[in-house]
């Protein structure tokens, strides 16, 4: 019984160790595909365009609708001095090909053992080194114009060539991360910069970059910088760049037309709104004027009614005053004959 328990404990420890190693290799898996990526194309690296730029090797990315597309190798600016770029890679795990995203860190970590060339031979990094805030370029590994960039040195001790494998796993590169690379996995990482993401998005929008169109030989294999000049595998300016530039120009023109149309619609809507407001103001002004006119008419009628009421008592009093003297005179006239008649009787 004790032996059986020991066996189960041993098996459990082995499973835990294997799962732990698998988890370390699987860090950063984002997209999965059920078919392997094409072989890595061989291309010529363009010259570094500016002091401080580092090389990002080209790689195959994946779109659910279009499949694999090539993101050209390009010179990019690091997010901070002292940081180096660990390229992305595809790994065959659990029956699928999983994409491990690249990242910035103080050291170059595990990138699947793929030989991308130009300082990334599958194990470590040989393109240059940081000395404080200044980057020193290994002109033996990178294409550097030393008349422009003076921070250079020469170190020829690095792997040459390209094994063309585009993924880690069976039928690809069978290599596991070493202790140093495992340590780098646990270090602080910085995700790709916005310019790097913009570069990948531009490749995704270019149909000529998809493997189903170029059959593993993209016309734009490398670029001197993001949105810069594109080069084919032989190092010549890519014809696809002219096509892509035409498409971008047409898209820009279409966008400008849409913006003009939108501006026209907004202007018309503003004019219509102003017209409605003017009409509403006119109606309000007319209503106010009509109300004022009604109030004036009402005030006039009230004034006339008041004047009539004031005139009636005066007219009624005048006849009464005219009749009073007549009434007062009548008794006197009536009494005079009576006095006149008394005289004869007295005389009698």
How would you summarize the topology of this molecule?
Blueprint: H1 2-25, E1 29-33, E2 54-56, E3 59-63, E4 67-71, E5 73-76, E6 84-86, E7 89-93, E8 96-100, E9 103-105, E10 128-131, E11 134-138, E12 152-153, E13 167-168, H2 179-185, H3 194-205, H4 211-214, E14 222-223, E15 230-231, H5 239-347
Parallel strand pairs: 5-14, 7-13, 11-12
Antiparallel strand pairs: 1-8, 2-5, 3-4, 6-9, 7-8, 10-11, 14-15
Characteristic key phrases:
5 helices, 4-stranded mixed β-sheet, 348 residues, alpha+beta, disordered C terminus, disordered N terminus, elongated
Description:
This protein has 348 residues and is α+β, with helices and mostly antiparallel strands. It has 2 domains: 28-228, no CATH class; 238-302. The chain has 5 helices and 15 strands. It has helices at residues 2-25, 179-185, 194-205, 211-214, 239-347; strands at 29-33, 54-56, 59-63, 67-71, 73-76, 84-86, 89-93, 96-100, 103-105, 128-131, 134-138, 152-153, 167-168, 222-223, 230-231. The strands form 5 sheets. A 4-stranded mixed sheet has the order 1-8-7-13, with no helix packed on it. A 4-stranded mixed sheet has the order 2-5-14-15. 26% of the residues are buried.
């Amino acid at each position: 019984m004790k032996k059986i328990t020991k066996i189960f404990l041993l098996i459990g420890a082995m499973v835990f160790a294997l799962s732990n190693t698998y988890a370390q290799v699987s860090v950063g898996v984002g997209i999965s595909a059920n078919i392997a990526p094409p072989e890595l194309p061989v291309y010529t690296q363009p010259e570094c365009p500016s002091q401080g730029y580092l090389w990002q090797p080209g790689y195959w990315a994946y779109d659910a609708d279009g499949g694999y597309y090539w993101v050209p190798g390009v010179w990019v600016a690091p997010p901070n001095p002292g940081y180096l770029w660990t390229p992305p890679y595809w790994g065959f795990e659990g029956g699928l090909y999983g994409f491990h995203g690249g990242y910035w860190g103080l050291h170059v970590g595990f990138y699947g053992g793929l030989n991308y060339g130009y300082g990334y031979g599958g194990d470590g990094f040989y393109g240059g080194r940081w000395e404080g805030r200044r980057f020193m370029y290994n002109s033996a590994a990178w294409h550097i114009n030393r008349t422009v960039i003076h921070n250079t040195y020469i170190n020829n001790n690095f792997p040459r060539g390209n094994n063309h494998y585009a993924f880690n796993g069976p039928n690809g590169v069978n290599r596991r991360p070493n202790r140093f690379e495992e340590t780098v996995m646990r270090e602080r990482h910085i995700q790709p910069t916005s310019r790097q993401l913009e570069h990948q998005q531009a490749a995704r929008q270019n149909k000529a970059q998809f493997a189903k169109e170029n059959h593993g030989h993209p016309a734009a294999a490398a670029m001197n910088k993001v949105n810069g000049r594109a080069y084919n595998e032989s190092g010549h300016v890519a014809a696809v760049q002219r096509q892509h530039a035409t498409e971008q120009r047409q898209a820009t023109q279409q966008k400008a037309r849409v913006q003009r149309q939108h501006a026209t619609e907004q202007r018309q809507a503003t004019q219509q709104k102003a017209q409605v407001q003017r009409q509403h103001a006119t109606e309000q002004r007319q209503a106010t004027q009509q109300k004022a006119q009604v109030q004036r008419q009402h005030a006039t009628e009230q004034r006339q009614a008041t004047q009539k009421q004031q005139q009636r008592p005066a007219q009624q009093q005048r006849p009464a005053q005219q009749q009073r003297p007549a009434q007062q005179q009548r008794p006197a006239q009536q009494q005079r004959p009576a006095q006149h008649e008394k005289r004869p009787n007295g005389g009698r």
